[in-house]
Each structure stands twice: as structure tokens, then as C-alpha cells.
Write a structure and sequence with these properties.
Order of helices and strands: HHEEEEEEEEEEEHEEHHEEHHHE
Shape: elongated
Length: 381
């Protein structure tokens, strides 16, 4: 009997028997022909985990992200047994469609009070964050699940900021149209585009279009720091901030544009050559176009910000409508102001060397001599 007992004890102490009590997650030693090899343990799911949760629908998901690179949606899942809501987590495996490079996206399960019931499909709210740039494709999966239906294809596309793009194009179109139309008018009244005009500078007392742009920039940044919604509808917070700053940069660049498009003369009257620079009518028109572009863009951005506040219920809709109409009327008045100011500035400060074909009262005064026009200092819009 003793040999039998000893054989039984020896069998209980063999590596094969000992491997059965190795904790889950550690490496198992398997004896094959006397040689020991390392192998990962079989997949095991802790009690209450997501090991048997799968998607109810395996159809690909296509999501258009908001301008802030996020989107909320629902997915239908089924569990083979009852589980608490806390046991359900998702993961994203994405690749950018532009360069096929892996990118990092996130998925968050939104609060859900009820858990999962056995063999009952339930819609789970989730929020997905993209990985920037263009679109991405990949898989959305249930974390920790071993079910065959644990992953579904997903495609993310970034929504275009259509209204902000429209504001950018509309503002530059208005600026070009007004500058071009006033250019036609002044040439019909004897002012050539190469006629002399004074140098331009930013005067806070008379450059109302520039002042409005700077005020609008301060307004935009103040709103973004206080009551602007975290998830705007028409564009991202970064895009709003960038366009507001860009509008001010356009206005600040206007005097430099006129100086760059000016004319440099060499004065030898004193016996020593001296370089002098003076503006031209075409330079003043171009600088005015830059100023108007910045001012109209700032007004358009302000209107969109007011719409964002109304859409997010930060402002009551009647208040948002009234304020938006006031800003819109200010923009219309600014167009009239810019048109008249360009004409009167050229008529009063530019020389006139061309043929007169028009009869506007603004140009009825005697023309300014070129030397006088060169010496004057004018302000941008």
C-alpha cells in the first residue's frame, strides 16, 4: 500500500497539478517532452465584467463630429446575463484616413442609471472624441469582452465650420466690392490710381472702422472667457478666437499696405539725395479694403457669437434677436460710412491728374496739388 500512497502524493505534486492554482494573469509553465516553455494564460473575465457583452447591431457607424471634435450617439448592446451599468466600457481603435497613421480617440459612456438585463438589447449613450485633423476610421469595441460581436466598424468625419467660412468669404467679398466701386467712381472724377495721396496712419479719433474692429475683438475674447458655450454649434472656440484676432490683424496691417504700395522719390534739391515716400490712390484703396475686411469679419463673428448664446439658451431668444439685429444694422451703417469716407478722403487729399467724367458734388472743389498731397497725413478708415 505504501508504494500506491507515495505514487498518489507524487502525482499531486507534479507541475501539471500545481499549474491549476496559478493566479489568473500570471505565466503558466507547460512541460512538453521535458522542456519548459512560457505561454500566456487563457482569457478570463472577472466576475461582473464585460466578458459576454456584444453589440446588438454590427452595422458600421458613421459619425460627423462637431467643430470641437466631439459627438454624442447611441449604441445597442446585449449581455448574456444581468450586469451593472458600471461593468460596460468601450474603446476606440482609429486610423487617420489622410495618411493611414494610427491616432488616439476617446469614447466615454454617458451616465446611465439602469444596468443590463439578460438577452435584452439596450441603447447606451456615448460621447466620442476624434483625433484631430480630417476623418478617421477604425473599430469601436466593448472593453474586456470575448464575444464575437464585441467590435463594430466606425468612421469619424469632422464637421466643417460652414458659417464661419461663409463669414470669412462674405466679409472679403464686401470689402473688394466697395473698394472696387469707389475706385471706379474716383477715376471717373479725375483721380488716377497713381495720383499722390498722403501717408496713412491709425487715428482713434477718426478711424471708426478700425475702432469697431478692435472693440469687437475685445468683445469676442470677453465672451469666450465668461459665458461662451463649451461646445459651440457653428465653429470651435479656437476658430472663433482665431478669426477675431485675425480681423484685428487685418486692420493693423492696413497702414503698412498703403506704405508698401506707395512711391519713393529722390529729392536732389539740397544737393544731397534724399529718399521720400508718399502714398498713392491705389494704395489707399487697397488699405481700405483690408480695413473693411477686418471690420466686416468682426461684425459677422459677433453675430455668430450672439446666435451661439441664443442657441445654447445662455441668452433668452428675444434678447439674442434684438442684439443681433442691432449688430447687423451697425454693419450696414458701417458699409455706408466706409463708402462715403473713402470718396471724401480721396477727393480732399489726393491729387487729380486725369479726365473728369463725373459730376458728384464731393469732387467739385479745386484739385490738390501733388506736392501738397504728398505732405499730408490721412487716417485709415
Amino acid at each position: 500500500m505504501k508504494p500506491v500512497v507515495l505514487a498518489l502524493l507524487a502525482s499531486l505534486l507534479t507541475p501539471a497539478a500545481q499549474s491549476q492554482i496559478i493566479p489568473t494573469g500570471s505565466l503558466m509553465t507547460i512541460i512538453n517532452g521535458g522542456a519548459g516553455t512560457l505561454s500566456p494564460p487563457p482569457l478570463s473575465v472577472p466576475l461582473g465584467g464585460a466578458g459576454n457583452i456584444r453589440f446588438a447591431k454590427l452595422d458600421p457607424i458613421k459619425i460627423t463630429l462637431r467643430p470641437d471634435q466631439t459627438a454624442s450617439t447611441f449604441v445597442d448592446v446585449i449581455s448574456d446575463d444581468d450586469k451593472p451599468a458600471a461593468s460596460l466600457q468601450f474603446y476606440l481603435n482609429l486610423t487617420r484616413t489622410s495618411d493611414s497613421e494610427p491616432c488616439k480617440g476617446t469614447v466615454v459612456t454617458l451616465p446611465a442609471a439602469l444596468g443590463l438585463q439578460k438577452n435584452t438589447s439596450r441603447s447606451i449613450p456615448i460621447e466620442i472624441t476624434g483625433c484631430g485633423g480630417g476623418g478617421a476610421t477604425g473599430f469601436l469595441g466593448v472593453l474586456g469582452s470575448a464575444s464575437p460581436g464585441k467590435e463594430i466598424p466606425i468612421a469619424l468625419e469632422r464637421a466643417s465650420s460652414g458659417w464661419l467660412t461663409f463669414a470669412l468669404y462674405l466679409s472679403i467679398a464686401l470689402a473688394i466690392v466697395i473698394a472696387g466701386y469707389t475706385g471706379v467712381i474716383v477715376t471717373r472724377h479725375g483721380h488716377r490710381l497713381t495720383d499722390a495721396i498722403g501717408g496713412a496712419s491709425w487715428d482713434f479719433g477718426s478711424s471708426w472702422a478700425s475702432n469697431i474692429t478692435v472693440f469687437g475683438t475685445g468683445f469676442s475674447f470677453l465672451i469666450q472667457l465668461t459665458i461662451f458655450p463649451d461646445k459651440p454649434a457653428f465653429g470651435s472656440r479656437t476658430e472663433y478666437a482665431f478669426l477675431a484676432a485675425f480681423a484685428t490683424a487685418l486692420v493693423g496691417f492696413a497702414p503698412a499696405v498703403q506704405r508698401m504700395m506707395g512711391q519713393t522719390d529722390i529729392d536732389n534739391s539740397s544737393g544731397v539725395p534724399v529718399a521720400t515716400n508718399h502714398g498713392l490712390v491705389v494704395g489707399f484703396l487697397t488699405a481700405s479694403a483690408f480695413t473693411m475686411w477686418g471690420a466686416y469679419l468682426q461684425i459677422a463673428v459677433a453675430i455668430l457669437i450672439i446666435c451661439e448664446l441664443g442657441k445654447a439658451a445662455t441668452l433668452n431668444m428675444p434678447i439674442a434677436v434684438v442684439v443681433g439685429l442691432c449688430v447687423l444694422l451697425a454693419g450696414v451703417g458701417l458699409m455706408v460710412y466706409c463708402w462715403r469716407t473713402i470718396l471724401t478722403t480721396i477727393a480732399a487729399n489726393a491729387s487729380r491728374t486725369g479726365e473728369v467724367k463725373g459730376a458728384l458734388k464731393t469732387f467739385s472743389a479745386a484739385p490738390v496739388q501733388p506736392a501738397v498731397a504728398m505732405a499730408r497725413q490721412i487716417s485709415v478708415l
